[in-house]
Amino acid sequence: MSPDPGASNRSAIERGARVMPGGVSSPMRAFRGVGGTPVFVRSAHGAYLVAEDGREYVDYICSYGPHIFGHRPAPVIAAIERALAATTTFGAPTVAEIELAETLCSAFAAMDMVRLVSSGTEATMSALRLARAATGRARVVKFTGCYHGHADAFLVAAGSGAATLGVPSSPGVPAAVVADTLLADYNNLDAVTRLFAQQGEDIAAVIVEPIAGNMGLVPPIPGFLAGLRALCDAHGAVLIFDEVMTGFRVAWGGAQNLFAIEPDLTTLGKVIGGGLPLAAYGGRRELMERIAPAGPVYQAGTLSGNPLAVAAGHAQLQALRADDQAAYDHLEQTGARLAAGLEASARSHGIALTISRFGSMMGLFFTAGPVRNLADVDASDRQRFARVFHRMLAAGVHLPPSPYETLFLTIAHGRAEIDHTLEAFDRALASEAASDDASEECPHPP
Ligand SMILES: *Cc1c(COP(=O)(O)O)cnc(C)c1O
Q: What is the predicted pLDDT for the residue at 172?
């Protein structure tokens, strides 16, 4: 371990930023949400990340969702090694893809057929194209604070609370491309009802994260998802559940299984790839048969159904299946213990904290709550989050570097890791409480 733990990370990000935008391959990794220098990782095992400088961190990023057993689960590694012996990609169909597709269709009651792709972005983008083709309509309803990958149609900024016409949230997205993207606040069924009343004839699809995981974790309020199902039925629109994050994470068969609501199309990713690039979209047969070459809706990919990714993903799903409910029960217990400990700590230090949780997914907001939509997340104390994040990082706990990201637990997170996390959190909140008191006593903060 080097004497200055930050030194190797600082020199790496400077070197990286000369040849890669921000020094990273995806923006969240650059720590802009919390400031400071990201940890450069050289390996990982179980619940731990190992940094370039040798320091180890309890990992709550878990690659933003793919890892459910922890890093390097033996069945997944063995399956990749077996597949690797046959080559890395064929560009021809394989039986292994059919086997994975059969597993996906058997897990999801609402999935008769499925197409494999390489990223969640591709899955949602293709599902929207299919919904538009099937309905002959252009508009899509999306919720403020839900993330569906970086395809143009979904890159729309938050409205001002009321449902409003989309405004691009990134330069390079033409206004015309998002003119058909309608926004509503998450958990606001009335807003969606109004959109359908005004423009129902033009709405091809409603896309929603059935448990929102890209503004921290925000669960659906009772009746919200069922209400979307009813509105789509009444107006002939396609209901898309984006389960890229929640699929196989919250339950076998995803959030739709927990809530017993069947969407028309489902998008998957993250867990189904076992850490390799694999995603999927699927649903009712009459919709999926419109996809090329069975039907006219074009969608393709050089590396789609990649044999290494299919092997890794299917091995991970088979391991989950073999555990039956045990894996999910274990994750639920670990999550409950972590949440209870964090909440007890906050209470004892008099710090407002709202924890939202579904099994192994958790949102951590410094606010008295409730947290029901993006505005509630925005109103939380994000400076406090950043300070606590860095205090925990210094103590060897790597939270996701933004209050807008979900924490993930794995089977590898055991008692020792949870205890270590709770101790680090308690010390971080003690420091927070002490500086809160100091600033109250000092009328003119320096
Ligand atoms: C991660 C995520 C995506 C995008 O997946 P990528 O593989 O990063 O393109 C889409 N939707 C949801 C809900 C996600 O969590």
A: 87
Extract the tokens encoding 288.
């999926």
Q: Is 147 a catalytic residue?
A: yes
Q: pLDDT tens digits, residue range 161-211? A: 334 456 677 888 888 888 999 999 999 999 999 999 999 999 999 999 999
Q: Is 273 in the pocket of ligand 1 (CB under 6 A)?
A: no
244 in contact with ligand 1, CB cutoff 6 A: yes
Task: Spell 357-371 as b/e; 16+ CB within 10 A means b.
Answer: bbbbbbbbbbbeeeb
Q: Which two tokens stand for residue 14?
A: 């400077």
Q: Is 142 a catalytic residue?
A: no
Which of 185, 242, 264, 376 is catalytic? The answer is: 242
Four-way CATH pick for 74-322: 3.40.50.12780, 3.20.20.70, 3.40.50.970, 3.40.640.10: 3.40.640.10
Is the CATH number 3.90.1150.10 carried by domain 7-60+329-441? yes
Q: Is 270 a catalytic residue?
A: yes
CA 390 from chain center: how many Å? 22
Please give the Cα distance from 129 to 297 (Å, whole number): 8
Terminal-residue alpha carbon distance, the chain: 35
**What's the mean per-residue pLDDT of the chain?**
94
* Token output for 361: 């997914």
- Closest ligand 1 atom to Cα of 124: 10
Tell me the CA–centroid distance for residue 120 and ligand 1, in Å: 4
Residue 3, preceding bond cis, omega within 30 degrees?
A: no
Neighbours of 193 (CB within 10 A): 18
The domain spans of the chain are 7-60+329-441, 74-322
Q: What is the mean pLDDT of residues 97-119?
A: 98
Cβ neighbours of 160 (radius 10 Å): 9
Which residue is it, tokens 């958990």? Answer: 187
Cα separation values, 314 from 47, 75, 267, 275, 390, Å: 21, 10, 16, 11, 36
Question: How many whole angstroms separate alpha carbon 101 and alpha carbon 319?
Answer: 16
Q: How far is the CA of 344 from the centre of ligand 1 (A)?
A: 32
pTM (predicted TM-score)? 0.95
- Per the CB < 8 A criterion, the answer to whether 94 and 302 are in contact is no
